[in-house]
Design a protein that fits this description.
Layout: H1 8-52, H2 72-79, E1 80-87, E2 90-93, H3 102-109, E3 118-125, E4 128-138, E5 143-150, E6 156-163, H4 177-180, E7 189-190, E8 193-194, E9 198-200, E10 215-217, H5 223-238, H6 241-245
Parallel strand pairs: 9-10
Antiparallel strand pairs: 1-2, 1-3, 3-4, 4-5, 5-6, 7-8
Helix pairs in contact: 1-2
Length: 249
Amino acid sequence: MANKTDNNSYTIFFAIVMVVIVGSLLAGFASGLKPRIKANEKFEKQQNILYAMGINNNEGTGDVAFIPTDNVAEVFNEYITKQLVIQGDQATENDLAYLIDVKKESTKAKSGDYQRRLPLFIGQKDGSELYIMPVRGKGLWDAIWGFVAVDKEMIVQGVYFDHKGETPGLGAEIKQRYFMDDFVGERLLDKGAFQGIKVAKGNNDPKNLIKDDYEVDALAGATITGDGVSVMLKKDLAMYVPYLKTLNN
């Protein structure tokens, strides 16, 4: 007499039960981890914003070192004195501006009848006021993003870039210090006209000593990623120019 466990119906039933059990366990884990994931995303944004304004644990010319997550919220509140949301010609204070999803705002704005919200972070460092703006664009394979810190004259004081899937050793180098540090001191305006910053091949300034050419040296073998950074900076930073120009009026 055949064992009940040998028939197909039992195998199918067992598989269904296991899928339900495993699925329930995974859903439970995901639900339990969601608050921690959200907290980590918040801390990561705070770390990136602080890094762009030069608040980090870097030493020498080595790797990127962020403010640790266990005290980043405290440091963020110490250095970021104000958060604004710019929408059209209105700028309002909002202490949760850093939680705005710039990707979703960009998507909404494509409808044509929605004015996207632009988060702007104002910080104090060494007696100077800095303005930190998020940017987001497209690299070779997927999304690239970051933050740019400028002073009232729209001279770059620091940046932070990251990516989702650029090629290691090539486009992925946008998040390395040697590339990001090149942007410090670069100007965004030429006699009041916004220029942006181009990641340029053959810009005749490989050590990036010229700070009024609106260019930084390109990454070897990463032309498309570099072009993506150029477009991202020009497109997204331009949206903040009207507000930043009011600072000197």
